[in-house]
Design brief:
single chain; 221 residues; globular
Length: 221
């Protein structure tokens, strides 16, 4: 829980921004908070709200949100060796609280302490979530009820890139990590014109291939 506290510095303005955007898109307070409690994934929530405000069909909203959140499937696959032996209820909680910050923090800690038991790893994961989720929900509420009071000059949109940089930078510790990170940046920029979420998935897949190939060649050497 303590290790996750710094993330609140960027999670809070990001959550406030979502609360503002959701209410401006026509969602009432119950709908806004319901989405935040159920989804707990800022990028897909923003995608859904944007499409809803444009009167997009329901299937389009669901498909785009799923595309943006498909990275969670990759997160889950890499978590399986660490928490797969834990009881079902524990794995279910990890699945519900699996988002960028909890995943990045936990994977970094698992590398630092490889002797942790599956339940110790679950406990660390849920500890991080216990700090971040209430902050995210409180920020969404603040944005939904008081967003009109925030001047446009504040520029809350800065929170998202800073948050991702804070998560990813400590994890780039080998040539394979660096190659994967560089590939993801380049491919994401090249695929920026693709529909929402598709470029992210293409970049993630390309980064995994490059990182795995670099690691294979280094292992062979």
């Amino acid at each position: 829980m303590a290790a996750a506290l710094p993330f609140l510095l960027v999670v809070f303005p990001f959550g406030v921004l979502f609360g503002v955007v959701a209410t401006e898109a026509g969602l009432d307070l119950v709908q806004t908070m319901g989405m935040t409690f159920v989804v707990i994934a800022g990028a897909s929530q923003f995608t859904a709200v944007q499409l809803m405000s444009e009167n997009a069909p329901v299937w389009t909203v669901l498909a785009a949100s799923l595309a943006v959140n498909l990275r969670m499937a990759m997160y889950s696959a890499s978590l399986q060796p660490h928490v797969g032996a834990a009881p079902f209820w524990a794995r279910a909680l990890v699945g519900y609280t699996n988002f960028d910050q909890t995943y990045a923090m936990s994977m970094l800690e698992y590398e630092r302490a490889p002797d942790m038991t599956p339940m110790q790893k679950v406990a660390y994961f849920l500890g991080a979530a216990t700090t971040i989720i209430p902050g995210w929900c409180a920020a969404t509420y603040a944005g939904a009820v008081g967003g009109a009071l925030i001047p446009d000059s504040v520029g809350l949109e800065f929170a998202m890139p800073i948050m991702f940089l804070a998560m990813v930078a400590p994890m780039v510790r080998s040539l394979a990590h660096l190659a994967a990170a560089a590939t993801s940046v380049i491919v994401a920029l090249l695929a920026a014109g693709l529909p929402s979420g598709v470029g992210l998935l293409v970049a993630a897949f390309a980064a995994m291939l490059v990182g795995a190939e670099v690691e294979r060649r280094r292992g062979g050497a």
